[in-house]
Amino acid sequence: MKSKQKKKYSLNKKSLFLLIILVFILFLVNSTTNRLYKKNKTVFPTYTTYIDSINTKGVAIFDEEVYTAKGSGIVLFNASEGEKVPVDFEIANINLMNDTSELKDELSQINAALSYKLNEEGKSVAINDEVNVTKIQEDLKNKDLLKAISDINELDLNTQKNVSVSNLTELMSSSIEELTEEKEKLSSQIAKSNISYKADYSGVVSFKIDGLEKYYTPENLGKLTIEYLDKHYKVSDFKSETKVENKDYLFKLVNNLSYYVALKIDDFEELKDLKLGDQLNLEVDGKEDILGQVVEINKEKKKGIIVLSVNTNFDELYSSRFHNFKIVLNEMKCFEIPKSAIIKRNSMAGVYVQEIQGLVRFVPIESIKSLENSVYVSTGDKDSYITLSEKTYKTITINDSIVINPERIRESQILN
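That's the Putative membrane fusion protein sequence above. Prediction below.
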C-alpha cells in the first residue's frame, strides 16, 4: 500500500517537472521569437505632392526697344533699373559738349537787332526775365531737364546786353521776318547740343541689354526653332557708362504688360494633345509659378518649340533672357515610401504594415512614380480605397507603420 502511494507521488512529481520544463521552453521560444520580430525597421508614409512635369529650357521674349546714343558726350539718366515710367518721360539726356559760344553771340546780336526793330515799329518785345525764371522753376519741378536747359539758354540769350550799333549794321538791313527766322535757326542749332530720350510708351527701363533683342521679338515667333535658339544664345556684357560714344547702347524700354516664353520640347508625345489656346502651368528657375497660353506650336517631327503668352511675373523674368522651366502637367497628393519596403504577392504590389507583437499585415498599394530610393503611391479615395484590376482594396494610411526590410518577415508573422 505504501509502495503504490510512493509510486503515485513520484509520477506526479515527474509530470510537474516536465510541465515546468515545457512551459519554460515555450516561454523561451516565445521570448526569442518576439525579440526577432522587434528587429523590423519601420517608417510612416510621408504625405506630399507629386508633380508630373517636363524639365526644359526656354527664352523670354519681350516687346522692347533699345535706345542708342545719337552723338558722343556725357549722359544723364533720370530712371533706374526696373523703374516703370509713363509715356513721354525723359529717361536720359546727352550733353554733346559742343562749343556753342559763337552761336550764342550771334543769337544775342540778332535778339538786339530784332528788339530794336520791334521797338522802332512800336511793337511789344517778348523778353521778360521774370517769366523765364518762372518757366525754369516749373521745368525743374516737372523734372524736364532738357526744357530747363533750353529755357536757361533762352534767358541768357534774351538778357539785354551792350551790343555795338556798328555790329548790327548788316542785321539792321534784314526784315523782322528774316531776323525771326534766323533766330529760330540758331536756337535750334544750340538746342542740338543736348539730345533728349523720352519714353515712346509706358514701360520698364532696363540697362540689362544682352544683344539678343533683335533676334527675339514678338514678330519672330513663327520663325523660332530649336536650331534658332541654339544659334542665338550668347549674351553680351553691357554696362552703362556716363561718357558715351555715337551709337553706344544707352538703355532699353520694355513693355511689362505682357511677354512671351519659347520652350524647347524634345518629345511632343509627353504633351499628348496640346493645341493652340491651351493653358500651361510653368515653374521658373525652381521657384516661380506662371500661367501661359499657347500661341505658337512650331513642330519638327517629334520635337520643336511651343510659345506661350504670359501676363504675370514680369519682374522675375525680364532681367535674364534664358531660364530653366518645368512644364507642370499634373499635381496630386500622395504618399512617399521607401522603395525597399515594396514587395509583390500574387503579382500585386504592396507593403507590410506593423501590427502588435511583431506581427505584420500585407496592404496593397498603387504606384504613381518611382524615384531613385523612394516611390510615390496613391492615397486612395477619402476612405483610403484604391482600385486595382477592377477590384477595390484598402491601402495604406498616414498612420500605418511600414516595414522597410520585408525580406526579414517570416510566414508565421503575416496575419493575412
